[in-house]
Amino acid sequence: MEKIKTIMLKTFKWIGIFILSILFLMFIIPILFPGTIAEQVKIFANKRLAGKLDYKKTHLTFFRHFPSLTVSVDEVLLLGSKPFQQDTLLSAKEVAAGINLKNLIFDGEVKIDEIYVTDAYANVFVNSKGQANYNVYVPTPSDTPKDTTSKGASIKLDLIKFRNWHIRYDDHSAKILVDAKGLNYTGKGGLSEDIFDLNTDLNIDKLDFSLDRIYYAKQKSLHADLITRINTHALTFVLRKNELRINNLPLKFTGFVSILKDGYDIDIKAASKKTTIRDMISVLPPQYLDWANDTKLEGNSDLFFSLKGTFSEPRNRKPDFKAFLLVKNGTISSGKAPVPMTNLNVDLNIDLPSLDLEQMTLDLKTLNFDLGKKDKFRAVIKTKGLSEMNVNANVNGTVDLQILDKALGLKQVDMTGLMTANIHANGTFSMDKKLFPKTDGFINLKDGWLKTTYYPNPIKNINLTANINNADSTFAGLGVKIAPFQFDFEGNPVFITADLQNFEDLLYKVRAEGVLNVGNIYQVFARKGVDVSGIITADLSLNGRESYATTGQYDKLDNRGTLILKNIKATTSYLPKSFFLKEGNFEFENEKMWFRKFYATYGKSDFSLDGYLLNTINYFIERKGTLHGNFDLHSKYILVDEFMALKNGDNEDKSLELEYAKAENPKSSGVVIVPENLDVSLHATATKVNFKGLDIDQLNGTAAIKDGQVYLDSTSFNIIGSRMEIAARYQNESPITANFDVAYKVQDFDVQRAYKEIDMVRELATSAKSVSGIVSLDYKLKGDFDENMNPIYPSLEGGGVINLRDVAVKNIKMLSVIGDNVGSDAFNNPDMKGVNIETHIKDNLIHIDKFTFKVFILRPSISGTASINGLLNIIVRIGLPPAGLIGIPVAVTGTSEQPKIRFFTRKGQEILQAVYNRKVNTVVREEKRATRKSQKEQRKEIKEQKKEAEKAQKQVDKDVKKT
């Protein structure tokens, strides 16, 4: 026993010493090596990262991710790659790298084999041009020989752990948004081996996924247990074990992905077999999940989809997609249902060869359900193609809406009424070829009643009888009758009948009358966009044929009646704010819709219109109609800045193009977008117009909007105390670019006031700050606007004449320097009264035609070139008495602020023009000073510079085609 006791004591002693030694090493190693590790990791990061990296502290410890020795970096911030250098790519509370202890102790090398990232936000962004913010890793050049002697940091990963991540992937070029919150990821395997199995455990608390602004997943939980074999030589990923669960729906994946030089090969199959309807419904949007929890759901379902083939943009190849959904013997019933929905069966197949919607086949073989013994609904629909679609459909059923409401347990809607539908269609639908399937059918709703939780009063007495018939498979044979559609809302009856025949040359007969509170009706359906107080009163009778208006047979039309709108608030997809129509009285008279009384506001701007729109009936009928009209427009105040597309406003119904432009240019105002479906003439008067801080008073003139462009003709207004006449054209190219042409004349304006109040005067005529007095201007310009609706100066082209009628010119530096050299103070105050200066602008250069003025008894003349940014290449000839027949040439170079003077020479120093690409509104090269060489050398250099500029522009054009 003594021996055993002694042995045990010695054993515990050595175990204690061993544990203490381990603990001692765990404390001492971080003290011995911190400088080495921190320095090498920093060197590694600086060599390999193109984005700016910032952090607060570094730690070397065993205890943060025990038992691994980790170098931890706190409060990490990594910014994106160009052009997103100021935007966050990754922020994290902690980024830790596990260090290989053997290499550290015996070799003094930092080998990273584990990565830990905690409480992180990853913001991955790709803009509309395809530029990404994540290209921050700088790879080692392949032709650089490996340095086998250096002892830097290297990565050989066996473990990756992410904890509590928020990942946002926003790809504007592909219109994809993925937003994952509460992401936890563990990846294990020999990640640095050529071929290895990656074991993945992934959990996401809330996952959103949308494509083209349509959400296919919203706040879904996801769990993934994956084993993926990765071959880094062939860049192939084989899915060996891949089990996903989206909410309660299990999915199993098999297949592989191989990365090619110009794309990838893919063969993926996913299935969720022998699941339940309840599991299937769990992937619906979150607002439906409470309904599912309170509703009895029974039945089986199967889901399958596959993606197989090659994706290659250069070869124009895309994989095939197939999917099917099967629901059998489903039952849906709430606790209050008198009878359940039974025999719910769905059999849906989708086939999409080459991801081409024009080849898509949608085959709904079965959609059946019963409501008790009497009400049965059956639908079979098969379509193939899109723009030219083959259709075979049969829909037949009778549904008591009250029983359906109770069976489904709808909480936000109460409805009653008997709906019957019987529709048969077989044939081809094509808008271009004006084909329509042979169709015979009707929809009938009797004694309908609808109330939602969004509004206290119901829509009552809803009755609808609609018949559709087509016997010859053409638009000409198509007929639709609505006789009638009527309902009561808040004590006001609404009655509509319509008889529409021959959709190739539509013969219409429509009658509508009633009063509708549009704002309240929108509240019933929980829709935004129209103000709650909006009222529409209609008493219309429309009779005619589409061709009567287009061929001028107006006497055959019988369109009459009135439409009154009051207090309507509405938005458009291309303006940031809402229009508020205080009152609009419209009268229909055959081909015209008269604006008898129209007053609207938009932000601080106000408008009243008097005139007509032509052919409004056809505008609503045609697929791509254009509204024609003629109006008198009056306004007390127009603030142009409010119409710039990216300005902040209350409009939430913006186009996707505008949303992306705003996200990519958050500090920009954008340009004014002109609708393309208008052909309208206006005689406009406005008391005051303000544009970017510039006041324009008493505007009067003619305007036209046509083909997405605005034209001004014979328009005049007061500006800086003078009357300006203007003719102009404006067209937006995108939400952030536009082009313009303008010709303007202004008589007798104050130079100093123009210099102080107009930005373009300061930019194009910098010497105006030394001029005071009265000047007249006759000028033409064309060019582009940038994302803040400022002119892009290298884009400007044009020219004109400036008349210095009664001016005083003092202390222009170029003339002052000449005066200092010739000993004449008179150059500081030359006589330029009555002088005409003709200039031409192109490629950011102002070319000055020769003009002559007086300096005491001298007759100087000036010609040459100046850049908008201040570079000078001017020739001054100082004409000597008598009459300036003999002159001294002076070359002026340098800049307008620091001119350089050379006497007795006509050789200045040429300025190479800027190069501007109009396709992408980009300055390829700014103007610059040519090196001082012989004329032959200068000509050669100019030729080479032009070749370089053309090459750069071709590269920009090539990049544009790619995007």
UniProtKB/TrEMBL annotation:
GO terms for cellular component: plasma membrane. Residues 926-963 are annotated as: Disordered. One of its GO terms (biological process) is regulation of protein targeting to membrane. Keywords: Membrane, Transmembrane, Transmembrane helix. InterPro entries: AsmA-related. The chain crosses the membrane at residues 12-33. It comes from the Bacteria. PANTHER family: DUF748 DOMAIN-CONTAINING PROTEIN. This is Membrane assembly protein AsmA. The lineage of its organism: Bacteria, Pseudomonadati, Bacteroidota, Chitinophagia, Chitinophagales.
